[in-house]
Specification:
The chain crosses the membrane at residues 55-76, 139-159, 179-198, 219-246, 258-277, 289-312, 324-343, 355-377. The chain is mainly α. It has 19 helices and 2 strands. It has helices spanning 9-13, 34-48, 55-67, 74-87, 91-106, 110-127, 137-161, 163-169, 178-196, 216-243, 251-276, 286-315, 319-344, 348-366, 371-380, 387-390, 398-407, 411-419, 446-462; strands at residues 3-4, 7-8.
Amino acid sequence: MMTQNGLPRFVTQAGLGPGPDESSPEPRTQPPGGLAILALVALGDWLLWDLSPGLSLVIFGAAVLALAGLRGRGWVTYGLGALPVVDLVQPLSLGFLLAGMVLALAGPSPGRALGFLRAVPLAWVQGLHPGRLRLKPGAFLRLWAFPLGGALVILALLFEANPLIEKALTFDLDLDDLPLRLVFWAGIALMVTPFLAAPPEAVTPRLRLPGWGLNPGSVLRALVVFNLLLAVQMVSDASVAIGGLPQGMSHATYAHRGAYPLLATALLAGAFALAARPFLAENRWLRPLLLLWLGQNIALTLSAALRLQVYIQAWGLSYLRVHAAIWMALVALGLGLCLWQVLRGHPNAWMLRRTAALGMGTLYACAFVNFAGIIAAENLARPAPDLAYVCGLGEMASGAIAEKVARNPSLGPDLAEVYDFTPYSEVIGCPAAIPPRIDHWQEWGFRAWGVARKVEQNLMVQEVGPTIENPAR
């Protein structure tokens, strides 16, 4: 897109923003004129105000990037970042949406992404300057009077002829909500300003690992001591596996006490391996001792995973236990990468790039997983499920609950006994049994739509009486 003073040309030609004689000393962070911001504020009000976020966030993000002049492969980057939001709006998916917008504008270079983040505070401050948004009436009327006037005439005619357009364009402004709505508009204007500014300059990232006062002698002695401590732990785990638990200790207690501390130990082991890597050439014993250290920590992580499995068998699934299992797998893979790095002599930058890709890839995949449904299905299949925890999982668990009740109708009275639960009536005591509502197309999400359909299908299978209207339809 052609720019003038760091702004899209259509903005300066519309008579908004600084003119040619008002060039900024830092044009790359010059915020845009008011026309683009006003258009995005109006669009944001229509898509987001007083509605649950959903598909509307993806549309709004695309509009921001379109006005910023995005083209080419940047749209592919944005699409990948927006897919988790299409599935479900949650903090993780919102993070990927924001990252997709930043990388789409800045490009795949981490330096340009860092430059964008560094320029955000300045862009916000400049966006508050009233002189940046002043209107030049002559230029504006010359270019926009006829198009806007004609559009208003056509809209007025369509407003009378088409009830759908009349409904879409009806603007219901509640004066009681006006102050909050003004704050909402101002928030949208501030949020979109950095994206509409000129592309940021690249920043060269500098990564320096802390030295922690290490030297070849201290690393050698630390590896000897640490390996001996882990060897004692491994012998202890082996004795428990062979001879059983100490008297008075259950498997659940043993698993709970060991799973998370062992995971923390393995994480510290990976950090120490990175810090010790530069000293391997100083002593011939450092390399084999570091390999032994990494191998023992991989075994330690597997031992923690086995403890967690025992704990889950005793008490069922929970968000914390699922997350712990995922992180244990990540830690084991990361330690495996560390071991391969030492064997092949790769630098720490090689290791950090791959662990970062492994972590981000795992988070991206997790954004598409309905953990609430998995946890509910697993726990309801147990002989004595924790109904209190299941009913607190949220609406995304309703599909799994409906399926389990359809297959095992006795679960309905069990839930009713604890929660005054009438399965799938209009008043439900178990919050997680209520399917998600989608009242407007702006709120649509793939996961909510799928869960609502699953509940509806299982309601038809149950044949529990007269047809009950699904509130998600």
